[in-house]
Write a structure and sequence with these properties.
The structure holds two protein chains of two kinds.
Chain A (H helix, E strand, L loop, with lengths): L4 E7 L11 E6 L4 E6 L3 H8 L10 E3 L2 E2 L2 H14 L3 E5 L5 H13 L3 E2 L8 H10 L6 H7 L2 E5 L3 H4 L2 H7 L15 E6 L11 E4 L5 H12 L8 H5 L3 H13 L2 E6 L1 H4 L5 H14 L4 E6 L6 H12 L5 E2 L6 E2 L6 H6 L5 E5 L3 H4 L2 H7 L4 E5 L4 H4 L3 E4 L9 E4 L5 E4 L10 H38 L2
Parallel strand pairs in A: 6-7, 6-15, 8-9, 8-11, 9-10, 11-12, 15-16, 16-17
Antiparallel strand pairs in A: 1-2, 2-3, 4-5, 4-17, 7-13, 13-14, 18-19
Chain B lengths: L2 E8 L2 H9 L4 H6 L2 E5 H7 L6 E5 L4 E9 L6 E5 L2 H4 L17 E9 L6
Parallel strand pairs in B: 1-5, 2-4
Antiparallel strand pairs in B: 1-6, 2-5, 3-4, 3-6
Chain lengths: 458, 118
């Protein structure tokens, strides 16, 4: 450890969607390491402690061989400009500024752009469009919520500070005693490590979330339930009635929901049922619902795509204007159906996380990859860029899971370029190539027309 | 004779911390190749801690290590998300963009009682 320790206050952890911006980081400037991360959770501590810079690593590889940045940018641009169905995917672990450049590349190359949302809370995005969202900020939850329900999620392991900073033990203006001022419910198919934080744990049968949510809606509206509802859902009518009474009589209720709803049978219907329940409850009290988002800026990806294209994910520009169609323009589908003929993957590792058929096709097309570390995707890439880590080596903007934008504070410099710099350079070169192609095809068309006219002349 | 069980991939703290070390590192590979099963199911099926199991379905198969987990109902397995769980996910998204990634029906069989040398 060197004597040159720099302390950075109010830094931001971008590991998960909580985006905690109260980090106090001690940085060994010579070793380029964060040696202490005060206020971070176990995941945040690992995020900062494991962030090292391998200065010997090349900033760019072409087919596994070190290359200059200029060569790699040229290869990447040529690949995207030449492709008939280029896809852009990832984006949930980079800044909004980089995401904007990615949207521009999709637009210019008439490609397809999608984010990790499609395999995360994409179904919730569909449900928002169908049902609407009774929403809030996490600050409101901290200050006001007296009933907190986690449904199909395990924040104790995936978002460890969600309880302490925002929703369970956090002390707020109208919740001065923290946990004592709240009732907490966890609904899940298994008794996760989040269950002990709850006053009530409700174990639903796998794949029966929709049925339970619909039953709660029915009870709330005074309808009677089928006698076999307990056999179907695994939850007794007595427990359902208790939940309904708690929800109806609370002052400010919140439903946080996770991928136990979106990744299971029913998908957007499950999320939609939960959102509809929150809406129904507003006839009696103030009730809100919010998906618990995973990656540090997946919410920013939804926002940037929405304000730039009108749609949150799964957007296609092949006709020269944006079209949205999950199942057709979402990345698992365009890969598994072998539509894509080139891929630009940013801050994501689909080669590790996607279904086999999608990975197989990804292995058969030219891939351009931007990541801070070597991954399975970067290993199969035609062009691989090593970039600086957002929130540690770069500034920029990210969105917390409640759509609150937060400006990142750079902690120390990296020798590697940012995602935004690489994507901006690729965008400019793709623009030049597409324009040159357009002009040359215009010249060819003019020449063809002249030839036809000459031939037609007597 | 394989037993049919329900596999729930999900996040875990260990998965999150080893992810930061690197997905190509042994720690991450080990965490995402370890499946949790209730003590009762392990006893019933004759499995022991550290047994190597094959999980398979119509999509593919994954070779994992068995460990006792808590909070799991009978017939349910938990595995941290990773390359192994992806082997069992189908690519059909039913027009939603989202492949079914939890509640995967899998056949479970023991292939070895010896832990691999790491």
């Amino acid at each position: 450890m060197s004597a040159n320790i720099n302390v950075i206050k109010n830094a931001t952890c971008t590991f998960c969607g909580c985006v905690c911006d109260d980090m106090i980081l001690s940085v060994d400037e010579e070793a380029k390491r964060i040696i202490k991360s005060k206020n971070a959770c176990v995941l945040g501590r690992a995020w900062f402690a494991e962030h090292t810079i391998d200065e010997a690593a090349p900033a760019a590889l072409i087919d596994g061989q070190p290359a200059s940045l200029d060569e790699a940018i040229e290869q990447a641009a040529q690949t995207l400009a030449r492709a008939r169905f280029p896809i852009i995917y990832g984006l949930s672990d980079t800044t909004c500024e980089a995401q904007r450049q990615a949207v521009a590349i999709a637009d210019i190359s008439r490609g397809n752009i999608d984010t990790t949302t499609s395999v995360c809370h994409g179904p919730s995005g569909l449900a928002f469009q169908g049902v609407g969202e009774s929403t809030m900020t996490l600050g409101e939850v901290k200050n006001r919520a007296d009933l907190v329900i986690y449904w199909g999620g395990n924040p104790a392991e995936s978002h460890p500070r969600h309880f302490g900073r925002y929703a369970v033990t956090a002390k707020g203006m109208f919740t001065p005693k923290g946990k004592k001022d709240r009732t907490v419910v966890v609904v899940d198919v298994r008794k996760t490590p989040s269950a002990p934080a709850a006053n009530h744990f409700v174990q639903v049968k796998p794949g029966k979330d929709f049925e339970l949510l619909w039953a709660l809606r029915a009870l709330l509206k005074g309808r009677s339930l089928a006698e076999n509802i307990e056999a179907i859902t695994g939850v007794s009518q007595q427990v359902m009635q208790m939940l309904v009474e708690m929800m109806r009589n609370c002052r400010y209720g919140v439903l946080f929901f996770g991928m136990g709803l979106t990744m299971t049978r029913g998908r957007h219907f499950n999320s939609g049922a939960l959102l509809a329940l929150a809406t129904d409850l507003n006839e009696y009290t103030h009730f809100v619902a919010k998906p618990v988002r995973g990656h540090g800026n997946v919410t920013g990806a939804d926002n940037v795509l929405s304000w730039q294209t009108g749609y949150p994910f799964g957007v296609n520009f092949s006709r020269g204007f944006p079209r949205f169609n999950p199942g057709e323009f979402t990345t698992v589908d365009v890969l598994a159906k072998q539509d894509a003929d080139a891929a630009l993957i940013i801050a994501s590792d689909p080669a590790a996380n996607f279904p086999r058929a999608a990975i197989d096709h990804l292995s058969n097309i030219p891939v351009i990859c931007l990541d801070t570390k070597e991954t399975l995707t970067s290993r199969l890439a035609h062009v691989a860029f090593r970039t600086a880590t957002y929130g540690i080596n770069t500034t920029g903007t990210v969105y917390r899971m409640d759509d609150v934008p937060i400006t990142l504070r750079k902690v120390y410099d990296s020798p590697f370029p940012t995602d935004e710099e690489i994507l901006t350079a690729i965008k400019q070169r793709v623009q030049e190539l597409v324009q040159a192609r357009s002009e040359s095809s215009h010249i060819v068309r003019r020449a063809d027309a002249d030839e036809q006219m000459t031939a037609a002349m007597p | 004779m394989p037993t049919n069980m329900l596999l729930v991939p999900g996040r875990s703290k260990q998965q999150g911390t080893t992810l930061n070390k690197g997905k190509l590192k042994a720690d991450y590979q080990q965490v995402t190749s370890t499946v949790e099963m209730s003590q009762e199911d392990m006893q019933h099926l004759g499995f022991s801690e550290g047994d190597r199991l094959r999980l398979s379905n119509a999509i593919g198969e994954a070779i994992v290590t068995c460990t006792a987990g808590t909070g799991l109902p009978a017939g349910m397995l938990f595995i941290p998300y990773g390359p192994q769980s992806s082997q069992l996910m189908e690519s059909d998204t039913a027009g939603s963009g989202m492949p079914l990634s939890k509640h995967l029906a899998v056949d479970v069989e023991k292939i070895s009682s010896i832990q691999p040398v790491t």
